[in-house]
Design a protein that fits this description.
By secondary structure, the chain is mainly α. The chain has one domain (3-85). 58% of the residues lie in helices and 12% in strands. The protein contains four helices and two strands; from the N terminus they run H-H-E-E-H-H. The protein has helices at residues 3-21, 26-41, 67-75, 91-112, and strands at residues 46-51, 57-63. A two-stranded antiparallel ribbon has the order 1-2. Helix 1 runs antiparallel to helix 2. The protein is extended, with a radius of gyration of 20 Å. It starts with a helix and ends with a helix.
Length: 113
């Protein structure tokens, strides 16, 4: 990727962020996210699904997909969460997890020497 491509990509990313943050309408914001992701990654289509607090899918926003394709995709979407909702890790939990990983790596290095 040359410098012009990178500069254009950054410019498009900034424009997409401005459009997303400029809207107070959540569905319009999701549409901007999906459209922007599709444009920035130069893909044929993109999609995003929102979930409620229990992990049940709520909204399914697509870009680059025909109405018929979207109907086919939503008809095979699970009604509820495929797995139990993931536990959302707090910043403290992540820090503790990183400390445990570092300790395991140090223990392996010490054992190897």
């Amino acid at each position: 990727m040359n410098g012009n491509d990178e500069a254009g990509r950054i410019s498009r990313l900034c424009a997409a962020l401005a459009r997303i943050t400029g809207t107070l309408d959540p569905p319009a914001g999701l549409r901007e996210v999906v459209d922007g992701a599709r444009a920035l990654t130069d893909t044929r289509y993109a999609a995003i699904t929102t979930e409620d607090e229990s992990g049940v899918p709520q909204e399914f926003v697509t870009s680059g997909v025909s109405r018929e394709e979207k109907l086919r995709l939503t008809s095979c979407r699970p009604v509820g969460p495929a797995q139990p909702p993931r536990k959302r890790m707090t910043i403290q939990g992540r820090a503790a997890d990183e400390r445990r990983k570092r300790q395991r790596r140090l223990s392996r290095l010490e054992a190897a020497s």
